Amino acid sequence: MSLFAQKTASDTLQNIVVSASRKAQTILQSPYSSQVWTDSSIRQKSARTSPELLMNMPGIFLQKTNQGGGSLFVRGLTGNQTLLMLDGIRFNNSTFRYGPNQYLNTIDPFILERVESVMGSGAVQYGSDALTGVVHLYSQKPQFSTKPLLQVGLQKRWATSDMENSYQGKIMYGQKNWSLLVSGSSKKFGDLIRGNQLGAQIPSGYQEGSSMFKFRHQATKSFEWEIGYQQMVQNNVPVYHKIVLENFAINEMEKQKYERVYWKGTAVTQHAWAQKITGIVAYQSSLEKRRAQKNASPILRVESDQVDTRSLSIDVESQWTKHWSSNSGFEMYHDGVGSSRSDINQSSQKIIPMRGLYPDQSKYEQSSVFTLHHIRLNQFQVELGLRWHQVKATLPDTTLGLSIVQNQALVYTAGISRLIGTNSSVYLSSSSGFRSPNLDDLGSLGIVDFRYEKPAYQLKPEYSLNLELGYKFENYRFRQQVSLFRTSLSNLITRVKTTTIIQGYPVYEKRNVEESYLAGGEWSGMYKINTRSALQGQLSYVFGQNLTQNEPMRRIPPLHGSIQYLIQTGRFTSQIEHVFAFSQERLSAGDKSDNRMNPLGTAGWGVVNLQTTYARKHWQLSLQLQNLGDVDYRMHGSGINGVGRSIWGQFLISM
Q1: Which residues, including other chains, have CB under 8 Å from residue 593's CB and lie 6 or more apart?
Q2: If you write DSSP's letter for every residue of 38-99 in order, what string do you get?
Q3: Which distant-in-sequence residues (6+ apart) come within 8 Å of 589 by Cβ?
Q4: Which residues contact 420 (CB under 8 A, 6 or more apart)?
Q5: What is the DSSP letter of 604?
Q6: Which terminus of the chain faces fewer neighbouring Cβ atoms within 10 Å, N or C?
Q7: Tens-digit pLDDT profile for residues 139-160
Q8: Cβ–Cβ contacts within 10 Å for residue 226, how many?
Q9: Given phi > 0 = left and psi -120 to 50 = alpha, else beta, which region is 625?
Q10: pLDDT tens for residues 514-528?
């Protein structure tokens, strides 16, 4: 039987989206632009990192400041203006930076089994930061089995020029009422080789290791719980463009570490008002240690920021009538931040302690209540929801004294879709979003990217208003989504350049002074030519205009997309892929002053990749030929160029 004939179950899972409404719905029913990648899609992509895994999702663009980073642009916004979720828990914390960051790279793609994106909505569903959408990642879960089941998996990945040398092991054991999953990986990434025979980008390589543990227990017919632990550690991650362009001898993330432990319980009751109750208690920790030293300078600057997040969430699923259901609940997140900085004279070994990037011992507390209602009337699906959110930030600044900042936000979502026959639907939605100013906005002091920032305690939330029209179609052979949108952005927190210079960097102050808008569209589709071959592709475009400054918005991605042809022949499954981006010459003043960008704009590019997999019952071998044309290219806004012509391999054993 062919690969495409076998994918019936996978296709069903790809047609179901949970994140759009916090409840399982078919994509055809949902009045939002949504994409779902299941385990088979993730394995097929065989990505090196989680950011690279998601770079071809419709509406998403990838910026890479360095090889150890990768920041998603969701309809033109990134950093702390885009919300990431992991297994129903906020991944964003109170120090997520404005603009590109590296945090998504601390999630190992080896552990993921499902990814969902929701464009133009997400603030009611999940809270602050979802100005233009939410990306929800789901890690692998141990499975129950009617008979004792033991599965062991081993995989090895490698690349030419020693650009990757990775190992991962996984063990899963399942019985009728309980199951266990343990996995771990070790990876070494060498310096990235750019195209057109221009050689290695030195230094850009680093090492990392990750581990995960999960245990599930079906305690009774009506109650299930699970506990999980996950961690990722990355060492000596160079910030390539700083070393090449800013006269640094050392500029690196000495250590990036993400760690979490959580408990999740799900109870099913006979009460209509609480058919299912889901509770999650979690602890997350994010550590970032940085080292920087200029050439010919004896001073080594050492910085450390750690965020410890404790959270509690409750979701109650109700069935009020045959056609009306809802999800309601509350969420609480509490961040404690430790921040330090010191200068070490390498000649005298004298250590000078300084204020950290954030006020040490700062606290950031978020709490919110939400309600989402799902109404099905004949061919219509209606989604209505509200969220009320409040924030309290406590900043004990050593130079400015104690400051307490509080703000609130109320947002809504409303959407309606209408089925046309059994294979297509049209939808119209309107959603408001918000982003409460976090500690990076309120309390950062010092050098960030190419600027020097000062604290700003007067800031208020940013807001978005999204209007969207879309069309969806799917049958046994063809599937597509088309959406058009316009997003108004108000009260935007803007870095305003002052005339002051500190340590050679211009000083910026943050203010709620700008209004902007984003407009564009996305298309994605898949056509099964026959039972053994298929075509799929996506195309995304966004136009961003800063109304206050009468100039383009910062870092707006160009028109970009991809097209893939997949074919199965015997035990071989092959894919040829063309990934491309047009040029981007609409630059803001901030873009032109960013040394990662050419002030004349970013050139368009296109690369061709080829992948083939040979599969047996218990093992498979995959080879990827990346950038066959050896094109030298750079993703818009990035600080490092893409990989040149190279071969990447993966060998997997599963028993």
Answers
A1: 450
A2: EHHHHHHH--SSHHHHTTTSTTEEEE-SSTT--EEEETTB-GGGSEEEETTEE---TTPPSS
A3: 549, 551
A4: 379, 426
A5: P
A6: N
A7: 999 999 999 999 999 999 999 9
A8: 21
A9: beta
A10: 999 999 999 999 999
